[in-house]
């Protein structure tokens, strides 16, 4: 069987002003043909998993960028054109496995993933197409209609990408006859409430597992979605592909999700309270466990498209007299200044440069360790084997600890980015993680405690702060949702009056 594999992967934060051009994709993941196989075979990625299941798959094109602002029209169109040209040249194909994030927003293209699948469908004809989606996907009916199977991640922090890629490939190979149902609940949830091992997602995923174990059920996804992509597809998505009763099963699963909506709440501390709590935890001494306290800077979540140069936690660390922290900051200008200046010690104003929201910058002085360019392969559970380019790096020994300044944005999906610059993260007193939950795949194994910090940024846990323009309304918890807004739920008594 000739199964084509490829995709375009981007999680778009519509509130980030800087658009994402083709250079951001070329700098992250951009492969075609044999290069795609060389780059992804054996990795813990969706297409790595698909290659395990279909060893002689036909590689097409795959482009991915780190989550960031809206994708430029010409970048999206260039990648889609490349994918289409290579798909046409590979004909005849017996099926497609596509790795699409599912929360992309592209200028001039209102539903990019549906357009990708629709374009390729017109080329390959009525052969099975399976699409892998991130846990943070916002799939719409056009995507579900164009694809034969949707297969969403079941983990957050994400660790099952290769399994989902293999599952998608197996569905294409078997191509069972199914009906599918995609439901969108008017439920907005911030990432900090979506961890798969914690409630309410633990129970929701268990319900999905039970459904998947029923005979004739071939694909089930429960996707909490990405609240920072401002579009009419926002919400919590439930997808079922089954030989019979797909719609009824999806409705029952959606009712299960809806009944747990009140549990999607995040508790955050302001930066000074958070640092005080972290200092108290450290002062408890060795009896209370070892390892760093993680200060989770949720609103400057690099994996959610935020820039990664927010200074709110750093100012609090400095104000509270904390020492031995490690914080990564995206600051290409400071890196350039550090590399251009002579001497062992420097004074720099770092961070807070991308927007006033992320500042003000903080002045640091100390010994500097210049490195780079630094590249490494992820060794942990997130996209194991994926190559990452940090650009040049400057590590400054500041009063509060090590400030790791990077030329490229670096997400805390692993801890290899610290080891790559000679830092042993287990030995830090405090780690500042610019993420919500994803940092757990890197630091979760040895962190003694996590404190979630309410910082300014583009991924606030308080979604009421966001200037939405295109999302549907009403949505829980921002508005009151009545039973008329949930016509597909099988038992209206679950909907209370008011909130
Ligand atoms: Zn995600």
Describe this structure in words.
With 499 residues, this protein is an alpha/beta fold. It has 2 domains: 261 residues, no CATH class; 183 residues, no CATH class. Helix content is 27%, strand content 23%. The protein contains 14 helices and 17 strands. Strands 12-13-14-15-11-16-10-17 form an 8-stranded mixed sheet, with helices on both faces. It has a 6-stranded mixed sheet with strand order 2-3-1-4-5-6, with helices on both faces. The protein is globular. The C terminus is likely disordered. The site of zinc ion has 4 residues, from loops. This is M81 family metallopeptidase. It holds the Pfam family MlrC_C. It comes from Catenulispora pinistramenti.
Structural class: alpha/beta
Describe the biggest sheet?
Answer: 8 strands, mixed
* Strands, count: 17
Which small molecules are bound? zinc ion
Q: Identify the overall geometry.
A: globular
The number of helices is 14
Mean pLDDT: 95
Calculate Rg over CA atoms.
23 Å
Domains (count): 2
Strand ordering within the main sheet: 12-13-14-15-11-16-10-17
Q: What proportion of the residues form beta strands (DSSP E)?
A: 15-25%
Organism: Catenulispora pinistramenti
Domain Microcystin LR degradation protein MlrC N-terminal: 2-279
Domain Microcystin LR degradation protein MlrC C-terminal: 295-469
Protein name: M81 family metallopeptidase
């Amino acid at each position: 069987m000739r199964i084509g594999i490829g995709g375009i992967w981007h999680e778009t934060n519509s509130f980030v002003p800087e658009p994402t051009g083709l250079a951001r994709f070329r700098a992250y993941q951009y492969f075609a043909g044999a290069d795609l196989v060389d780059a992804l075979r054996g990795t813990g990625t969706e297409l790595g998993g698909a290659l395990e299941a279909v060893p002689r798959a036909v590689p097409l094109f795959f482009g991915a960028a780190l989550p960031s602002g809206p994708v430029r029209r010409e970048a999206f169109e260039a990648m889609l054109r490349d994918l289409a040209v290579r798909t046409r040249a590979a004909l005849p194909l017996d099926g497609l496995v596509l790795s699409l994030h599912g929360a992309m927003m592209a200028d001039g293209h209102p539903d990019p993933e549906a357009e990708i699948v629709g374009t390729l469908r017109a080329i390959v004809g009525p052969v099975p197409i399976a699409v892998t989606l991130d846990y943070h996907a916002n799939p719409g009916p056009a995507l579900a209609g164009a694809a034969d199977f949707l297969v969403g991640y079941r983990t957050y922090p994400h660790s099952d990408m290769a399994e989902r890629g293999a599952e998608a490939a197996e569905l294409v190979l078997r191509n069972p006859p199914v009906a599918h149902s995609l439901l969108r609940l008017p439920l907005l949830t911030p990432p900090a409430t979506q961890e798969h091992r914690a409630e309410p997602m633990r129970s929701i995923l268990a319900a999905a597992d039970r459904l998947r174990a029923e005979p004739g059920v071939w694909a089930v996804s429960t996707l909490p979605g990405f609240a920072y992509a401002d579009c009419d597809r926002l919400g919590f998505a439930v997808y079922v592909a089954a030989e019979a009763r797909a719609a009824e099963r999806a409705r029952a699963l959606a009712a299960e999700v809806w009944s747990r909506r009140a549990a999607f709440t995040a508790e955050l501390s302001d930066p000074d309270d958070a640092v005080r709590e972290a200092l108290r935890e450290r002062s408890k001494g060795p009896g209370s466990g070892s390892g760093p306290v993680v200060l989770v800077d949720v609103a400057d979540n690099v994996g959610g498209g935020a820039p990664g140069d927010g200074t709110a936690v750093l100012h609090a660390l400095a104000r509270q007299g904390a020492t031995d922290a490690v914080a990564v900051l995206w600051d290409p200008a400071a890196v350039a200044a550090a590399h251009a200046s002579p001497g062992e010690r420097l004074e720099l104003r770092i961070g807070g440069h991308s927007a006033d929201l992320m500042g003000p910058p903080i002045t640091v002085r100390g010994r500097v360790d210049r490195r780079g360019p630094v590249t490494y392969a992820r060794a942990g559970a997130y996209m194991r084997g994926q190559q990452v380019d940090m650009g040049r790096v400057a590590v400054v020994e500041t009063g509060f600890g090590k400030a790791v300044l990077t030329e490229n944005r670096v997400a805390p999906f692993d801890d290899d980015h610290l080891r790559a610059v000679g830092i042993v993260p287990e030995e830090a007193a405090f780690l500042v993680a610019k993420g919500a939950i994803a940092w757990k795949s890197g630091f979760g194994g040895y962190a003694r405690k996590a404190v979630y910090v309410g910082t300014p940024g583009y991924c606030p846990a308080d979604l009421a702060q966001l200037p939405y323009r295109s999302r549907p309304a009403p949505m829980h918890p921002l508005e009151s949702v009545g039973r008329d807004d949930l016509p597909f739920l099988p038992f209206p008594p679950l909907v209370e009056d008011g909130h």
